[in-house]
Structures are given as structure tokens and as C-alpha cells.
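Q: Got a minute? One more chain.
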Amino acid sequence: MGILATAVVALAALACFLKPTWGFLGYVALLLIRPNELVEGVLVPAMPVMIVAIGGGYILNLGRTLPWPTGAPKPKTIPLMMGMMVMLLLSLLIFRRHLLVDWILVEFASVTMLLLYATRHMSTLERVRSYFTTIMTSASTVAGVSFLVHFLTKGKKMMVKNKTGDLVESYGKLWDSFHLHGSWRLMGKANGMWGNSNDLGMLVNLAVPGVIYYLRRKGGKIWKLPALALLGMLGAVLMLTGSRGGQLQLGVTFWMIFVGGKRKALGIVMLLVAMVGILFVLPKLAPERKDSAASADERKLLLEAGVQMFKRNPIIGLGFQSFPENSFRSLMAHNVYMQCLAETGLLGAAVFFPLVFLLRRDTSRAVKYLEAKGDYNQGLLARCIGAVQFSFTVFMFFSNQFMRFTFALPMTAAIALQIAAHRHRIEQEAQEAARTAQAEAELAAEAVAGPKQPALPPARRERAALPARAKLALPAHEGAPDELGPDEPQPLEPGPRDEAGGGSPRYVFDPTAPEAVVQVEREPGDEPEAPRRPPPRQRPPWRKG
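A: Always. Here it is, folded:
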């Protein structure tokens, strides 16, 4: 297992140098799965290796980055996000030096690489879809592992002592490592990236919109049934986490996807069903939470502590990652907006709050444009990414995701969607301008040369090539099958000249002349010929003078 994990990391690092899009997708997958641990005695330092590889790959592939769409406004969220990262870096330098290296290697580098690649490599709709699919697949992998451990590795019940010396229920070492403090609440893995039930609930909500996209998109019917099964598994994992914030995030996601689309009646019904399930069904099916009252009290105390921290230094705060510890365990504010005010003060809030607002506004505009101008699948993809971005913004009222890579994943996907929408709009406008210019050029050419004459049929072209005298010798009833009638205009055809240099007659049609008279136009110098007249009518022999 350790050799296999090491080989996967090595292949992903190699892809960063060969093709930037492949390397970025591998980087995102490892960022979410995070095999940064001992696997059967083999250390797999995935993230340090991948950060070096993705940075080197970006430098080597600078010439292959997509140019910024000409005429497209640059999102203001890009400098705001980088400004916020620099502000947190300075805060750590001033207040908490011992956390600086860890934060740079884990969060700062990850957010920077995500932002660089999302804006310069993943800025087309097809690449945005690949990015979104990678997030869905990786998050589903983590949730699927937890789901299998919960149902397949449960052993016999026994009582063991936990880290604090209390006796708790145990169902085996592996089963316990995927459950929160000996309870039935599911999580990613103890001491791992997703070693918290709320974090696993958030990860499930990153995957659900992607599954809905593949479930509702046009084409690809082979993926409908697997997508439906995957959606059921993710719903079961979210229920087993017991995360109330994750359940609220799921409700917001469904509202944004269905009510925000064309089938609003269906969306409202599904939202009502989801609300009934959250309020009445899930509390009975989800694992029993013995810490519900304690958790509510802790969150209240933490919010009060955040207010006191803000009052102590409202301008620059008390320093990034300086939130206090309580008697139960080390906790953050459980509210990103309060954490921003407490740790970075009004200075940090002046950057972070506009960042969140502008991300929502620009993403909403991109979604509306693609729903109106793109095809059905493009509009559905945009709506699902917009749902991820907005539901995560709501979830931050109950979580600790202040400028982490978990914050950057949905936000950079939204930024890439904005850039791809600008590129799509400019390409559509260029194509429309080219079609308009071509139509105007055709109209101008027609105005100069006159209207185009319709092409003659083959039989008529053969008759037109005959000498004029041969045409005149043909009786009217022996003409070509497609010969024009007497009331229709006849084509003017030049006749060849004879060997003596004289001109040959040319057939001319005059609609005002009698039908029985054949008019002939001659070249200068030719003597006119008398028109042919029908022979006199003879009387029948039985009639007398």
C-alpha cells in the first residue's frame, strides 16, 4: 500500500512537468485525499512533493498558460485574495512566529497554487468542468472510505479508555479511528485531514453538486445510475456525521440548483422535503449526539470570546490563529467572520468581507450569462458551481475555514468559472461580428454587380450553345422539354459569325409583339430579312366563292 501511494504521488508530480492541466488535477486530488502519513511503515510526504512539483511545473509551462481574454475585466477577487494571504503572513510574523513555517507549507502555498492555475490554465469551460469533476471524485473517495469502514469493519463492543482516561465504547481500532470520540458520529480519520465530523460534512457538500450535474446533464446516460448510487452514499455519510451545519449547507445547495434553475416548482418541493427531513427525520436516524448541549454552550462561549478579542484591538486584532482554548479542547471560533474580526480586526475585515461579497456577485453574473447564452450543460455546470460557492459562504458561519485551502477550493472554482464565462462571451461576440461583416460584404458586392442570375438547367444550356439559325428552324412544338412558354421571357444568346465575316442573327424576344412573328436582331451591316408569315388560308372545295 505504501509503495502504491508513493507511486501515485510520483506520477502526479511527473504530470506537473509534462502537462500543466494534468498536474493540477492530480495536485487537487492529493490535496483533498492527503496521503501525508505513514502507510504500512512507508512515509508518503505527498503535499511537500506536490507543492514543489506544481510550482516547478507552472514555471516551466508559463508559455502554455491561456492568455487573458481580450476585453474581459479582471476579477477584483484575485488581488483581494492574495492581499489577504499576505496580510495573514505579516500577522504570523508579528504575533505567532512558531506557526509560520507550517502555515506557509500547508495553506499559503496551496492557496497560491490553486489561484495561479485556476486563473491561467483552468479558464475554459471544459477545463473548469474537469476541475469540478476532480473535486467531486476526490471528496467522494474520502467519504466512500469512511462509509465502508463504518459498515464493514465494525467489531464486537468493548469498553476502553480514551486519551482523557474515560471509559468509552469501542468496536475495533480501525472503526474507532473513523468515529468522533468513541461515538457513532462518522468522520474522515482521527488525526487526519478530515478528522472531524463537521469537516467531513463540508467535504460531502463539495461533492454533491458535482454528482447532481452528472445526474441531470444531457447525454452520457451510462453515468446516470452510478451518479444516483453515489448521491445516496453521500447522503448517508452526511447523515452519519450528524453535522447540522453540513445539513444546512445541503439545503442551500438544493435550493440554489433547483430553485435557481427553470424548474422552480420542483425546487421548492424538494426544499420543503429537505427541511422536513432535517427537522424531523434526521434527528431520529442520525447518530445520537450526547454532546449537543455542550456543543451549543461552547459555541456561545467562543462567540463571546471573539467579541472580547475584537474589543481589545479592533484595528489589527490579536494575531492570526490566536483564538483561545477552552477547558474541553482547543477550538477555533466556529465562525469565519467572527474569527476574521477577532484575529485581524477591521483591517482584515476590510479585505475579507468585500472578497466574499464580490465572489458571490461575480459568480452569480457568470451563472446568469451561461444559462442565457450557453447550452443546457454549460448552464447546469455554472449553476452547480455557483451553488458550491454560495453554500460554502453560508457554511462559514459555523466553521473554521478562514483563508485555508478548503476555502480556496470552491472559491477558485468560482473564479475560473467567471473567467471562462468572459472568454465565452468574447468568443461569441467575435463570431457574431464576423457573421455580420460577411453579410454586409455580400450585400455590398450584390449592390455593385447587380442581382445574381439563376443558373440554367443542363438542357437549356445545351440549347443555348446551338447556332442561332438552328434555333430559329426549330418549330415551337419541337423545342426542348424545358423550353419557355410564349408568355415567359426568353434568354438572349449571342450567335456565332459565319465564315464570310457577316453577323449571324440573334433571337430577341419582345413581349409586346405578336406571337406568330419572329423578331430577329442583326449585326450592323447585315440586310434585314422580311419576317416570316404563315401561308394563306385555302378555302375548302365544298365552299363556293
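A: The first strand starts at residue 38 and ends at 39.
Q: Perfect, thanks.
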